[in-house]
From TrEMBL:
CDD domains with a match to the protein in the record: GT_2_like_f
Pfam families: NTP_transf_3
Enzyme class: oxidoreductase
GO molecular function terms attached to this record: oxidoreductase activity
SUPFAM superfamilies, per the entry: Nucleotide-diphospho-sugar transferases (SSF53448)
Boundaries of every MobA-like NTP transferase domain copy: 20-186
Compositionally skewed regions (Acidic residues) per UniProt: 197-207
Name assigned to this protein: Nicotine blue oxidoreductase
Species, as recorded: Brevibacterium epidermidis
Annotated segments matching region Disordered: 197-220
Record key words, sorted: Oxidoreductase
Length: 220
């Protein structure tokens, strides 16, 4: 099913709700604005708040947020919110792979986990719910977004079945995250076309900052 929209197989869906994992430890050095988790969207929400609400609103049972750079500030932003656990990753500076491994090990085995980096301003509860509805046992289900040529490209969020979370944790390294695992086992990855909900872009460079506004306006 690699590259094919999983929405075509509703008969194989499962109602099991995953746990959420937000990778929010980076310092945002290329952006030069501090941690991307603390960037504020046009609606007043920080990125970490908006992603948290998307995961919970889309059907996650709870969410683990991995912090690192200015972790105390990120934790304060989420203070008082329900169904969220904050975990500081002391090795965050080695790259996103360390945070993915930290998060999956914290959550532990036996759980489906939907993972996303924090720098995804367009992620919504609708996109998360679509992935959960399309997921079936034993698979890895990823949001797909079409590029200008119409090709469906794998992006985030990614829903790892419980079968795959130990392998994702073991494969995570440097800034690669689980990319190597996803490429090596592409036949197990179902892509769900979410182009109508989100363009799949993230925020890395200063020229990407207008996406903080466009992501909100596209939902109005």
């Amino acid at each position: 099913m690699s590259g094919e929209s999983a929405t075509a197989r509703p008969d194989r869906c499962t109602a099991r709700r995953p746990r959420g994992l937000i990778l929010a430890a980076g310092a945002g050095r290329r952006l030069g604005r501090g941690p991307k988790a603390l960037l504020v969207r046009e609606d007043g929400l920080t990125l970490v708040e908006s992603v948290l609400l998307a995961l919970l609103g889309g059907g996650c049972t709870d969410v683990t947020v991995i912090t690192g750079a200015r972790g105390a500030e990120v934790a304060r932003v989420l203070d008082g919110r329900d169904l969220v656990s904050i975990v500081d990753n002391p090795g965050w500076s080695s790259g996103m792979g360390s945070s993915l491994r930290c998060g999956l090990q914290t959550i532990g085995p036996g759980h489906d986990v939907i993972v996303t980096p924090v720098d995804r301003p367009g992620i919504s509860a609708e996109e998360v719910a679509r992935l959960i509805a399309a997921h079936h046992p034993g698979a890895i289900t990823a949001a797909g977004h079409r590029d200008p040529n119409g090709s469906l490209r794998r992006g985030h969020p990614v829903l790892f079945d419980a079968k795959w979370t130990p392998y994702a944790a073991a494969a995570a390294h440097e800034d690669v995250g689980a990319r190597d695992l996803l490429e090596a086992h592409s036949s197990a990855v179902d892509l769900v076309d979410c182009t109508d909900l989100d363009d799949g872009t993230d925020i890395d460079e200063p020229e990407d900052l207008p996406r903080l506004k466009s992501a909100v306006r596209s939902r109005r």
